[in-house]
Design a protein that fits this description.
The structure holds 2 protein chains of 2 kinds.
Chain A lengths: L1 H23 L10 H21 L2 H4 L9 E2 L4 E2 L12 E2 L2 E2 L39 H9 L9 H10 L1 H5 L19 H13 L8
Helix pairs in contact in A: 2-7, 5-7
Chain B lengths: L1 E7 L2 E7 L5 H8 L18 E4 L2 E4 L13 E2 L8 H12 L9 H14 L5 H8 L9 H16 L4
Antiparallel strand pairs in B: 1-2, 3-4, 3-5
The chains are: A mainly alpha, B alpha+beta.
Chain lengths: 209, 158
């Protein structure tokens, strides 16, 4: 009788270990998330889509290149005048961004400006080497990777979108040299911040590749 | 019209002008400092380069209202600066100038380059001077003059 009990116990243990191995392995079944959690993620992804629509607008992405130059205009052409990125993303010794760009827009001459005008670092490139905009999943990955984004967590990203002068500039980009207004991102700054908040509060989900 | 007090070449100057007026016109028309040249008017050629707060700046696209209290240095006073003097001497010794129209901008940019990079490489020179155009094609002599000035500066000028 004792032997039978021992066999039964061993069999139960083997069965349990086997189930755990399956769960920990590649065939782990996806447990259905609670409905509220799924809805929250979906809401977050929808909000990210709106954030992405702003990040990839020329007012933002023209300075998030993967190359050694910024871009200009709604057609995102290479910046004129042989402007180059430089080691610190602000141009080179005697030909810096500040050679032309001031702390605010120069509407009478058509030169855009904001505090600390510069290119985004290469770690925040949202284009490839051929100036093609990266897909939503890859931009999201870059934005949420704290080893690439100056260690910004969700609240830090939200604050960045709310307060950073260069981000705010995109929504008040001033006039071109011909006097016409530069085009605006598809959301207002308030809508952009609200979308970022929704996305962050949902855990900053990123779309699948 | 607004009145601004500008610090130009170490002197306080009061001007009453349209806030949107480019600094270039204020220098040339109101202050009669005509050494700074009008080339393209869109920051593409560098002929109008002056130093604003120590930064080589295109005066043709800088509205006077955005200058603030930053000191302005133009070609007329660059020889008062030790680096500026060495650069101008190098320009003479290398016989850089042909027509001369772009040269005040070239010198102002070269001075800014040598103030930040005392021993510039060829790449440093090409990138920093790349926005200054010379229709006479004096680029080879400009590079030689910058290297000559760099050697003199390495000898102890501060």
């Amino acid at each position: 009788m004792k032997t039978l009990q021992s066999v039964a116990v061993v069999a139960l243990l083997v069965s349990a270990v086997s189930r755990m191995a399956t769960i920990q392995g590649a065939e782990r079944p996806q447990l259905p998330a609670p409905a509220s959690s799924q809805a929250r993620r979906a809401e977050g992804l929808e909000a990210w889509g709106r954030v992405y629509s702003v990040l990839t607008h020329p007012r933002c992405i023209n300075c998030h290149t993967a190359t050694n130059y910024p871009q200009q205009g709604d057609d995102r052409h290479r910046h004129q005048f042989n402007v180059v990125r430089g080691r610190e993303d602000r141009g080179v010794a005697a030909f810096t961004c500040a050679t032309c760009h001031q702390g605010s827009n120069a509407d009478s001459t058509g030169v855009p400006g904001a505090h600390n005008w510069q290119l985004a670092p290469l770690s925040m490139r949202w284009q490839d080497q051929n100036d093609r905009i990266l897909p939503s999943s890859e931009v999201c990955k870059a934005v949420t990777d704290q080893s690439r984004n100056h260690h910004l967590d969700g609240p830090g990203l939200l604050k960045h979108h709310e307060d950073e002068a260069l981000v705010r500039w995109a929504f008040q980009p001033g006039r071109r040299s011909d006097g016409t207004e530069r085009s605006l991102p598809p959301l207002t700054h308030e809508q952009f911040v609200a979308a970022t908040r929704t996305w962050v509060e949902a855990g900053s989900p990123c779309p699948p590749r | 019209m607004e009145t601004y007090t500008l610090t130009v070449n170490g002197e306080q100057k009061r001007v009453t002008v349209d806030p949107g007026s480019p600094l270039l016109w204020v220098l040339r028309e109101d202050l009669k400092l005509t050494g700074t040249k009008y080339g393209c008017g869109i920051a593409a050629c560098g002929a109008c380069t002056v130093h604003v707060g120590g930064v080589a700046t295109r005066a043709c696209v800088l509205p006077v209202s955005l200058v603030g209290d930053r000191p302005i240095v133009t070609i007329e006073a660059v020889a008062n600066d030790a680096v500026g003097r060495v650069v101008q001497d190098a320009w003479v010794s290398e016989d850089v100038v042909q027509c001369g129209y772009c040269q005040s901008g070239q010198i102002m940019t070269a001075v800014a380059l040598l103030k930040s990079t005392r021993r510039p490489t060829d790449a440093d020179i090409e990138q920093s001077m790349g926005g200054n155009l010379c229709r006479c094609g004096t680029y080879v002599r400009i590079r030689a003059a910058i290297k000559t000035a760099s050697r003199h500066l390495a000898g102890g000028v501060r």
